[in-house]
UniProtKB/TrEMBL annotation:
<feature type="domain" description="HTH marR-type">
    <location>
        <begin position="22"/>
        <end position="154"/>
    </location>
</feature>
<dbReference type="InterPro" id="IPR023187">
    <property type="entry name" value="Tscrpt_reg_MarR-type_CS"/>
</dbReference>
<keyword id="KW-0804">Transcription</keyword>
<keyword id="KW-0238">DNA-binding</keyword>
<dbReference type="GO" id="GO:0003700">
    <property type="term" value="F:DNA-binding transcription factor activity"/>
</dbReference>
<dbReference type="Pfam" id="PF01047">
    <property type="entry name" value="MarR"/>
</dbReference>
<dbReference type="InterPro" id="IPR000835">
    <property type="entry name" value="HTH_MarR-typ"/>
</dbReference>
<protein>
    <submittedName>
        <fullName>MarR family transcriptional regulator</fullName>
    </submittedName>
</protein>
<dbReference type="InterPro" id="IPR036388">
    <property type="entry name" value="WH-like_DNA-bd_sf"/>
</dbReference>
<dbReference type="GO" id="GO:0003677">
    <property type="term" value="F:DNA binding"/>
</dbReference>
<dbReference type="InterPro" id="IPR036390">
    <property type="entry name" value="WH_DNA-bd_sf"/>
</dbReference>
<keyword id="KW-0805">Transcription regulation</keyword>
Length: 167
């Protein structure tokens, strides 16, 4: 047993960490998310967007004039993250923020002409991203990946909800 511990320590010193062996699912998700987000960010930079902004724009293209709160809820982001991203998009001239006439506490987010003009470019980027991401998968593997991803996300969301309610 002592010899095995020594070998493990040596592997770690040589940079051959077995993180991917000890936590294969979490490490695979980490690597996939890092690679996907990196490629998306690179592609989006070509049109002046930061990764994540395109998701908010997609939501607004589906239904313009949403509240910041509903945007966050739809894509699973907290209020401060949404507010910062919306502010950045407003400064870039892609959206405007106004107070709701019905409830002045609510901030509505609406597309500008510049924001609407990005729709075709963003859709092109996401089509390319989808093709690159899934090009080595069979149709059955694609469906399984999507199904398992939603299943894992639901388990993580539930664990997050439980940990928040326990605090």
């Amino acid at each position: 047993m002592e010899r095995q511990d020594d070998e493990t320590q040596l592997e770690r010193k040589n940079g051959e960490s077995s993180t991917n062996e000890r936590y294969p699912v979490s490490f695979a998700i980490f690597m996939l998310a890092r690679a996907h987000r990196g490629l998306a960010a690179q592609m989006l930079r070509e049109i002046g967007l930061f990764a994540g902004q395109e998701i908010m724009l997609m939501q607004l293209w589906d239904q313009d004039g949403q509240s910041q709160q509903s945007l966050g809820r739809l894509i699973g982001l907290d209020h401060s993250t949404v507010a910062k991203s919306v502010k950045r998009m407003e400064e870039a001239g892609l959206v405007t923020r106004t107070r709701s006439p019905q409830d002045k506490r609510v901030t509505l987010v609406s597309l500008t002409d510049s924001g609407r003009e990005l729709e075709a470019k963003v859709n092109d980027i996401w089509n390319r991203l989808e093709r690159i991401t899934a090009e080595r998968l069979t149709e059955k593997e694609r469906r399984l990946l999507v199904s398992l991803s939603y299943k894992i996300a639901a388990a993580i969301d539930e664990a997050n909800s439980n940990s928040v309610s326990e605090e």
